[in-house]
Amino acid sequence: QRLAQLGQQGPSTAHHPTRHRRAGPRCMRLLSVIARTMAATQWHPAGIRPQRSALESLKARKEAFLGDAAGPLACWTCCLGSSAGDLDSLASALAAAHACNGTAVARFRREDLALRKDCQLALGEKGAAALLYEDEITDEVAKKREPKTTLVLVDHNRFDAQSLQLGDRIICVMDHHRDEGQHKDAIDREVDETCGSCSSLLAERMAAYMEPDLARILLAAVAIDCRGFDPKVRGTKFSGRDVKAAHSLLDVLGPKVSDRSEDSLRARPIPEGLFDASTIPALAKLLGAARHDVTGLTAAQLIALDYKSAVAGDGTKVGAASILTPFDDFESRAGGSEALAALLKEEASSRNVDVLFAMCQTDPSTKKRGLAYAGKAVESVERGFEAAPESLPDALRTAALFVEQKISSEGFGAAFSDRGGMRYSELRPQTSRKTVLPAILHF
């Protein structure tokens, strides 16, 4: 029942072949009735106005989850973003938690928020305080809450949060990444790979009862994920759904406009006092600069800044860090190649993965990206990378991003060799973790 708000539908499912509904029509009609009742009495503008803002309510639910409160029917819903913990994941988790009376979980330690400067800028103090961080979920808390906790996955569509010890009862999935075909028995499941931001999907569904403090955070996530709606990335970084969602968020924050076009969105002013940016393109630039500001960060902090984990088909646990600096700089911050190899092994052990990959930014001098790994030897992965595109399965070879990055035709450009106790290869500059990690998991 607490998922009812999230279960309300936006556009027709006929336009979204990857959207799945496993609950029967009668069940969904009941959820809709409950949703309308909840909206009228709790959040909907036409009903009784809430005494607390969305972020204040989310903070209160976080405190109740950590405390001794029994909660509604002694049940809890935790909304989990991806393990990378980027702005889109955090914003989506907050929005989903607000929609279903749940708790928004950040998949990193509280102290690591300081590494995510774009997230700090967008969240503000109240947004940061509303999140439940993984180091706050102690063994005692997990043991107490796990039996009655259900999970909502946002910004990813394969459960990988076993370490939280909150069970694996997935009731909802909302994402915009490649559909891995998991959790099709969820009450509500939507995966739209054409959408630039998961936050757009949440904004679309919650338009009728969106709160301004939440709309501000969602707008920031949409702006940076959609690259400020630059026309050059139309169709690859954003779609019409993102444009519509961004307009709806600005409607909540300021005066509405009749022109709902993409051009109008780029020129539409952001109300004063929200950000040090007057338009969405300017906001994307501001947040992008903050995201890529790695001044003063150590090599270990760079790993923690943008880290994901996954499990390969053979059971190998894989860690993948996207490093926001070229490889030579990353290696230098660690103290050299041997020190970096030791650090990768240490991080792999502390994160309970068998092997840890670090993928760096393109080096301006070589025009190549550096990829290094340490831990369990994965010769099959090396062979797969070096033999691509011939080694790619059809599912990856035909995937839009593999085609866009020309991996389907030119491969990764990989050639692995030893480097101070780790394995290292340069890759073509067009590649990204969104293609490298799926390839690792397959090979």
From TrEMBL:
Molecular function terms from GO: exopolyphosphatase activity; metal ion binding
Polar residues: compositionally biased ranges: 1-12
Protein's UniProt keywords contain Hydrolase: yes
Cited InterPro entries: DDH_dom, DHH_sf, DHHA2, DHHA2_dom_sf
Keywords: Hydrolase, Manganese, Metal-binding
UniProt cofactor(s): Mn(2+)
Segments forming domain DHHA2: 284-441
Region of interest (Disordered), ranges: 1-23
One Pfam family this sequence matches: DHHA2
Hydrolase as UniProt keyword: yes
PANTHER family reported for this sequence: BNIP - RELATED, EG:152A3.5 PROTEIN (FBGN0003116_PN PROTEIN)
The protein, known as: DHHA2 domain-containing protein
Species for this entry: Pelagomonas calceolata
Lineage per the UniProt record: Eukaryota, Sar, Stramenopiles, Ochrophyta, Pelagophyceae
